[in-house]
């Protein structure tokens, strides 16, 4: 009933009964429980009713509850809190240093302290869940970061390291990789556009501090699909990669490699990788020959990746994040056979490759959206019902 109400935004009991397929009496009883638990409330600005008839509309409430998300990226992190309606209550960027050999204990403490500080500031709301997001792959136990080479992490029990420093969350502490979640957030943003409601299959590719991807299939995250595109072999017997393979995608098109080729090593050292990539985009626009050559080579490799992903997953649209957003037009120079398979609604062929719009912290937004839907779908199991 809550997920239906979330989709409708507001609705009368009869309408909810129709949409859910439940009996009117069941909806009446459920509504009473949900009202008592402040998970729904009557809509304030109801249209005037005929005398003697009062058709009350309901909407999601839950303003006394919040969901916390904490996303860790290379050299940056953020803690975000949403209430049960999806409204952002709080956002705090946390200074964090993550060299390639970042000590997991130190990073976990920084993140846990950031979450604790946010919890202190969120007065009058009870935290339900904590979603941790990292730039890397997650093991099947959903608690361990199996591989995050940008941080130098292999098999780090990150969820436990953070959770052990914080009070318990009634709906748990969860861990996920950033690629799939960013893909979901970008997908949800696209689907909310006019004429896009039926969009279901999206390939998300980004390059910022590394190379990441996510696949949305039939409206859902395709778990474990292409979580480490940077380590697909593209050059047989190529350069040795730190993952142990030879000729991985990152050996030819990692942002560190691109920045170096563009002659931006000093900028990278002094101002960090994100600033060096911004400078790359600026110099390409200004016609700098080294920057242009470096970008052209990167685009060459990314086109191959997009083309291969297109064959594997048949997306309707491709969303390009990080600095790739600036090169959407160049990346769309794909073979005609590929372009003919891409498209949804009015966005066909080349127009089906679009820049990402949610920025570096899209993933935490995706995590909170999915957590909210999960909690709404099973309020009793989620600890939302106390009465
Ligand atoms: Zn590799």
Describe the structure.
By secondary structure, this protein is α+β, with helices and mostly antiparallel strands. The protein folds into 3 domains: 2-60, Orthogonal Bundle (Arc Repressor Mutant, subunit A); 65-180 and 363-377, ATPase, nucleotide binding domain (Nucleotidyltransferase, domain 5), CATH 3.30.420.40; 201-356, Nucleotidyltransferase, domain 5. The chain contains 14 helices and 18 strands. It has a 5-stranded mixed β-sheet, with helices on both faces. Strands 14-13-12-15-18 form a 5-stranded mixed β-sheet, sandwiched between helices. Helix 6 (178-191) crosses helix 14 (362-377) and helix 9 runs antiparallel to helix 10. The longest helix has 25 residues, at 289-313. The protein starts with a helix and ends in a 10-residue tail after the last helix. The mean pLDDT is 92. The chain binds zinc ion. Residues 231, 241, 243, 245, 248, 250 line the site of zinc ion (ZN).
Which short descriptors sum up this protein?
18 strands, binds zinc ion, alpha+beta, 387 residues, 5-stranded mixed sheet, Arc Repressor Mutant, subunit A, 14 helices, 3 domains, Nucleotidyltransferase, domain 5, 22% strand
Which structural class fits the helix and strand makeup?
A: alpha+beta
Contiguous helical run count: 14
Distance between the termini: 18 Å
Shape annotation = globular
CATH superfamily of the largest domain: ATPase, nucleotide binding domain
Q: How helix-rich are the residues, as a percent range?
A: 25-40%
Strand content: 15-25%
Task: Sketch the major β-sheet.
Answer: 5 strands, mixed
| Overall domain count | 3
Q: Report strand order across the widest sheet.
A: 6-5-4-7-11
């Amino acid at each position: 009933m809550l997920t239906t109400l979330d989709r409708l935004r507001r609705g009368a009991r009869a309408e909810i009964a129709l949409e859910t397929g439940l009996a009117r009496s069941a909806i009446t009883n459920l509504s009473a429980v949900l009202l008592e638990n402040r998970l729904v409330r009557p809509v304030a600005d109801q249209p005037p009713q005929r005398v003697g008839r009062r058709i009350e509309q309901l909407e999601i409430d839950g303003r006394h509850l919040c969901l916390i998300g904490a996303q860790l990226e290379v050299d940056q992190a953020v803690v975000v809190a949403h209430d049960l309606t999806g409204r952002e209550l709080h956002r705090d960027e946390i200074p964090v240093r993550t060299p390639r050999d970042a000590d997991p204990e130190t990073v976990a403490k920084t993140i846990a302290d950031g979450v604790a500080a946010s919890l202190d500031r969120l007065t009058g709301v009870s935290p339900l869940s904590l979603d941790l997001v990292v730039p890397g792959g997650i093991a099947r136990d959903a608690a361990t970061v199996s591989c995050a080479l940008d941080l130098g992490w292999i098999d780090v029990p990150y969820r436990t390291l953070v959770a052990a420093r914080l009070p318990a969350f009634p709906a748990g502490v969860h861990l996920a990789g950033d690629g799939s979640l960013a893909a979901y957030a970008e997908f949800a943003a696209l689907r909310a556009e006019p004429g896009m409601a039926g969009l279901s299959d999206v390939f998300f590719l980004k390059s910022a501090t590394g190379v990441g991807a996510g696949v949305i299939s039939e409206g859902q995250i395709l778990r474990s699909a292409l979580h480490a595109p940077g380590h697909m072999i593209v050059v047989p017997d190529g350069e040795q990669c730190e993952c142990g393979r030879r000729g991985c995608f990152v050996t030819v098109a990692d942002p560190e490699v691109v920045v170096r080729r563009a002659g931006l090593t000093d900028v990278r050292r002094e101002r960090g990788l994100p600033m060096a990539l911004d400078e790359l985009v600026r110099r390409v626009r200004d016609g700098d020959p080294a920057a242009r050559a470096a970008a052209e080579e990167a685009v060459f490799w990314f086109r191959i990746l997009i083309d291969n992903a297109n064959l594997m997953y048949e997306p309707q649209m491709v969303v390009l994040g990080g600095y790739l957003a600036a090169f959407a037009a160049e990346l769309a120079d794909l073979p005609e056979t590929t372009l003919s398979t891409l498209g949804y609604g009015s966005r066909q062929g080349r127009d089906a490759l679009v820049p990402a719009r949610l920025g570096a912290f899209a993933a935490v937004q995706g995590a909170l959206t999915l957590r909210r839907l999960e909690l709404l779908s099973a309020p009793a199991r989620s600890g939302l019902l106390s009465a």
